[in-house]
Structures are given as C-alpha cells and as structure tokens.
Amino acid sequence: MGLLLIPFNADHSIPLRRAPDVRQACTEAYGPETEDTPTEPYIASLRGLQGIIGAYEWRKNGVEIPALGARIHPHYGVFAPIRGEYIGLVNDAPLPELTATQSVAFDIGTGTGVLAAVLARRSIKRIVATDQDPRALACVRENLTRLGLAAQVDVVQTDLFPEGRAALVVCNPPWLPARPSSPLEHAVFDPESRMLRGFLNGLTAHLEIGGEGWLILSDLAEHLGLRTRAELLSVIDAAGLKILGKIDVKPHHPRVSDTSDPLHAARAAELTSLWRLTAK
Ligand SMILES: C[S@@+](CC[C@H](N)C(=O)[O-])C[C@H]1O[C@@H](n2cnc3c(N)ncnc32)[C@H](O)[C@@H]1O
C-alpha cells in the first residue's frame, strides 16, 4: 500500500469522487507551523494517509492511563503510551527519600508528558520535562493543561537534560538500538543507543546527592541480539552509577500472545524494567 499514491489539493482535500474529508487529520499531522506543510497540490501514499488518520483518532479519543485516571492525547509523530506497564512502574516505585525535602524531578524525553503527569500526581512539586521534538513539546503542553498540571511542570526544548540537578531523574528512551527509517520512528529507535548512553553518561551531573535516576527499559533488544546485558551494565558502571534496585514487569499487550508474529519468542520473553540508579 506504500506504492499506492493519492493526489491531494494544497488544502489536503482529495480530488477524487467519494473520497473522505481528511483535511483536519492532515492539518494536525503536517501542522500549520512546520517546514513540511504543503503549499501546493501533492501526492502521498495510502499507507501514510492511514497513519495520519490513525493518529488523528488517537489524538481525538486519547489513551486511557489507569495511573492517572485520565486520558493522554498523543499527537501525530509523538510516542503514544499504549503499553501501560512502564507507566505502572513509574507510578508504583518508591519515591527517593530525598524528594520529601527536595521535591524536584526531571522527565527526560517526555513525549506526551505521561510520566511527568504521573510524577505530578505523585505530589512532586516541580518537574522539568524535556524533549527535542517540537511536536512532543506542543503535545505535552496540551496534555498537562487538560489535566490541570501545567503549573507544576516546566516544558523545555533541549537535548536530554535541562540545567541543574534534581532528586529524581526519569528517562524512558527508545528501547531498540536501531536506525529509524523515517523521522516518525525517532521515538521508537535509538541509533547506536545515543539517548540511552547520553542519559546514563549525564546522569551523575544532574542528580542531587542521594538522588535517583530511573531508567525505563525493556530487554527486547537483548532477546533480539541487538544489545547484551553486559554492555548495559558496563555503560552504567562506566558512567559512575550503581544500581540500587530493579523492578520488573511482564508486558501484557496483545502482540505478546500473537504466535504468528516473527518476533514472538523475543516478545514472550520480554521484561520491562525500572532501574533505580544513583551516583557511586
Ligand atoms: C520512547 S519515547 C518516551 C516518551 C515518554 N517519556 C513516555 O514514556 O511515554 C522517547 C522520547 O524521547 C525524545 N528524545 C529522543 N532523543 C532525545 C534527546 N536527545 N533529548 C530529549 N528528548 C529526546 C523523543 O522525542 C521521544 O519523545
């Protein structure tokens, strides 16, 4: 279907009989403010259009987040928090004692802002949420405003860390070290583990003494032979960090039980973990 091309007018209407009205969905995906916004008639693949329509529905309907008792509305191209198990880990892990007196947390690579929202609901007084992607920044602001949490969270566009230190620094990097094939895959694939390594290597410089870094990571990459556990442990050690604990959860999304999935064996063995790290 990627080879089936559809003509569009510049206003995103489709000049074909009985074509659906996808103008709103396309406007949200391309955004009035980006360089990608078409100003002339154009063509796009049916597969691309399906992605745009799917994202429009996710944004409109939102994703129910039990830990928040509310819905998070992902924007087109922003990592959607469909797999709830990692959110449960952040909701349930014991907060570092230091947060009782220094109630500041960073959420590195915030995406929709779901983890920042969970921390805000867990009564962290001030949160700084970062991302590099302008779509994510717009998305997190909208979600936090909708949840009434915007005053607790500063949203900052930066590469990894904001200025300063925090008692708790949370990061859920893309779980697979592989090259994205399109800009939309940057939230899923982390080429050469750049974000994972950047987070680990920069963590001690951004943690208060006695603070904790929470790394959220699935071991799917290990089951696929893309990273070894020894490599991960060696990066943690070389970054001057020690492991305080690890809380694991088994994913429960539908693909885990899909035996026709070529990655079934790896998915069935997968664990998602919250690694509690601190400076050595
Ligand atoms: C896997 S998503 C996680 C999103 C969200 N924290 C969650 O748990 O649902 C990773 C996020 O990190 C962002 N990101 C990737 N590289 C980054 C960097 N160098 N600095 C800041 N954010 C980055 C991506 O744009 C994406 O929103």
* Cα gyration radius (Å): 20 Å
- Helix content estimate: 25-40%
CATH topology description of the largest domain: Rossmann fold
Average residue pLDDT: 92
Spatial strand arrangement across the major sheet = 7-6-5-8-9-11-10
Q: Mind telling me the CATH class of the largest domain?
A: Alpha Beta
CATH architecture of the largest domain: 3-Layer(aba) Sandwich
Strand content: 15-25%
Shape: globular
The topology string of helices and strands comes to: EHEHEEHEHEHEEHEHHEHE
Low-confidence stretches: none
Task: Tally the structural domains.
Answer: 2
Number of helices: 9
Structural class: alpha/beta
Distance between the termini: 52 Å
CATH superfamily of the largest domain: Vaccinia Virus protein VP39
Number of strands: 11
How would you sum up the major sheet?
7 strands, mixed
Name the ligand types: S-adenosylmethionine
